[in-house]
Amino acid sequence: MKTLEKLAIDGGTPAVTRRTPQPPRFDEREKQALCDVLDTGNVFRYLRDDDSQVRRFEERFAERIGTRHCLAVNSGTSALMCGLVGLGIGPGDEVILPGYTFIASAAAVLGVGAVPVIAEVDDSLTLDPEDFERKITPSTAAVMPVHMRGTPCQMREILAIAERRGLKVIEDVAQACGGSYGGRRLGSWGDVGCFSLQHFKIITVGEGGAVVTDSDEVIGRANMYHDCGRPFWEGYEGEVIPGLGFRMSELAGALGCVQVEKLDAILARHRANKARIVAGIQGLPGVTLQRVPDPEGDCAISLVLFLPDAEAAKRFANALRAEGVGCGTVFDNTIPDRHIYTYWDHILEKKGYTPAGSPWTHPAYKGSVSYSKDMCPRTLDYLGRSVALGIPQYMDPQEAAQWAEAIRKVAHALAG
Ligand SMILES: *Cc1c(COP(=O)(O)O)cnc(C)c1O
Description:
Blueprint: H1 28-40, H2 53-65, E1 69-73, H3 76-86, E2 94-98, H4 103-111, E3 115-119, H5 129-134, E4 140-143, H6 155-164, E5 168-172, E6 180-181, E7 184-185, E8 192-196, E9 209-213, H7 216-225, H8 230-233, H9 250-279, E10 288-289, E11 302-306, H10 310-322, E12 327-329, H11 345-348, H12 377-384, E13 386-390, H13 397-415
Parallel strand pairs: 2-3, 2-4, 4-5, 5-8
Antiparallel strand pairs: 1-9, 6-7, 8-9, 10-11, 11-13, 12-13
Helix pairs in contact: 1-9, 2-9, 3-4, 3-7, 9-13, 10-13
Bound molecules: pyridoxal-5'-phosphate.
Pyridoxal-5'-phosphate is lined by residues 75-77, 101-102, 104-105, 146, 172, 174-175, 196, 198, 209.
């Protein structure tokens, strides 16, 4: 057995010496696409429906995800609201979602007047199917699995329960664009799939989102809802519902057309890097890897390690950062992390848009959901003892090997 190397945090040599530069996110293709739109003098999709960049993006995106329809919108949050309205969800309904997701998932439920119900995640850090089933009440209308950090949810289990209990499934794919489960793209499993295309996501148009579905009815309703002027732009045969203002501009659409073509190459780079790191960190003392329900479909933008407890996770993260690997634990942030339900203060306090307290006090709501900071103890346990690493898109094999070496070094030192 080799002698333990001195950790960088104790004055040893850092394991990671290589840093692959990350090339600019946009290149000539995006610049050209934007200039082409500007040259037309028109940035509004419905003025050139036969040649709209937004329309072209929707076609390409639907084709890539494998659904019949796509509606482009102006954010991931509005995509979720369009998906919910598309499914007919509103006042009186409960929607079950995991306690580990960006607050936008719950905000969208509130936005359409429905009540969010918070359920546990399991060791995949995605919705625990058993707790989802436990949280079903007579008011439950839908479940919103969230593919957090690019990790596919257990869609077969979730769909089986939803089908048995007569619930709709709305996938939040904001963090997992292009990922898959069982060979099918995320977003195409549920009744509707909702994506974000803002700056921090896998592909981006600046601010934007997308709704995908196979259902004519769902896309028709989402379409009406996303644009209150919609019946004026084109004739509409179905029932007209009131809409809001979630349109995507031609500039964003043009960016989206280029970005969607890059999606699979982006994921391929992340996957190669993560595979190299994971191969080098098997069977380490005191370290368990996050379970990934379908490793082949993982977007591979992140890697999560579970330590025995929160204290160990903090020590591990500090030591690993000193070795040159960017990582963190969830509860040592200086700002409250809105990805964890304990920081969704206004929801836990049932504060709506006005003192009247809707949706919880809405006459149509017959349920009695309650919230507390400790309502999902397993979620807090898993998150509290996790160390999360972001996987860079560009890494040469040597740098990936050094990351694995750094993780091994820290694990052995802290265990020994
Ligand atoms: C980013 C995100 C959203 C919201 O997307 P926006 O484009 O910022 O509105 C929704 N859900 C999850 C899980 C997210 O990460």
